[in-house]
Amino acid sequence: MNKLSRLLTIVLLLTVAVYAGLKYYLYSQTHAAVERFRQQVALFVAVEYRGIGSTLWGGTVQIDELTLKPNGIDDVVSISEASFSAGSLRHLLRFARHAKDNTPPDSFRLVLHDVKLQLDGELVNVADRFLAAASERQPTRPNCGNLATNQLGFLRELGYETLTADFGFDYTFNGVAGLLKLRTEAELKDMNRFVMDIKFSGVQAGLADFKTASPRIKEVGVVLKDLSYNERLRKYCAKAAGITEAQYLQAEVEHGGAFFQQLGILPGPGIRAAYRDYLTTANGELALRAQPSEDLPDLRALAHYKPADAVTMLNLVAHVNGKPIEDLSFVYGELPAAAPAVAAAPEPPPAAKPPVSASVAPPAATGQFRPVLIAELKRYLHRYVRVHERGQPPREGTLVEVTNRMAVLERRAQGSVTVARIPLTRIGSAEVRKD
Description:
Blueprint: H1 2-41, E1 45-48, E2 51-55, E3 60-70, E4 77-85, H2 89-97, E5 107-118, H3 122-134, E6 162-174, E7 179-188, E8 192-201, H4 209-212, E9 216-226, H5 229-241, H6 245-255, H7 257-263, E10 265-267, H8 269-280, E11 285-290, H9 307-314, E12 317-320, E13 323-324, E14 330-332, E15 369-372, E16 384-389, E17 395-402, E18 406-413, E19 416-423, E20 427-433
Antiparallel strand pairs: 1-3, 2-3, 3-4, 4-5, 5-6, 6-7, 7-8, 8-9, 9-11, 10-14, 11-12, 12-13, 15-20, 16-17, 16-20, 17-18, 18-19
Helix pairs in contact: 5-6, 6-8
């Protein structure tokens, strides 16, 4: 028994030693890779993290509680966990040995979990300034009170305070079949989930082939699932434009909002009906899948085909909420400008209007305002004010609330109430209407 006990003890100690050695090896390799990354980006962003862990049998390493702070900007992006999985310990060890060669394993999965960005922070402010500068005139939407809805800051108007997301990326390469598969997924909490998968054929060396050639796309699929964003936008825009939700939907489907404008198409009745179904169904889902014909060497050649021929060449199949879209007809071109939707209730003639109280006063001329200190805005609660938000047109309304971070303005028009929540850090100056 003594010999057997000693043998078992030795085996146990060897197992523990091997386990500890593997854990340390993966830790040191990951730590070295993270430090190299920190040095490479140090000029632009400071990277901090709490710790490094690994799961041996799953072939996974993870970095916990990452923070990225751009230099010169008082704001951060936080990541709860970043993980890299090669599928097995053997593949992970092989990748670790060749990590400096930048050669990926035949398959891996990269996940960023719980990525957070404050929507009232300076990073969003800077991003929106770049978006505003990217075009001479920000596109506005008549069915949303003529507001520009393509900036991150607009999400605050929909009730979001923090942008929280999970991201995943999968890579699979089969050298024998010459097939490369990529899958990307992103889920924005309480907003949308987006998934795209692409298969490339004729690939001999993995990602290296993209440097010297353009592998042919064999198949591509896209899924967009709503997680409450559509309802929030519909309710907000209808109130901002002083119209009913039905009128908002009619204008959105006829003129497509940002969706059809970005695609640059005029959709036919089938696509319009499907789009309406997507917008009005709780957790609606759009799914597209294409298997381009071998006679189509390059997707850019689609611009030379008629729309019906393009759909055929792509072997395009589409579904909305699990139902096939039979009519995929469309034509190329810009959508006609959307006219403002008719208000839910007609505005009475001037003679019939009741006197307007101070709490619902219309915008006044510039000369009727006087400047006030932003720090003293609380003194002007329930007064009509005008605030100048950096990179945005001035906003006016009754000041109904001021917190340590936010000024809340309320504006009434045609029986509806529009509420604007503006971070104090983004207000450059403020004015109050003279009594």
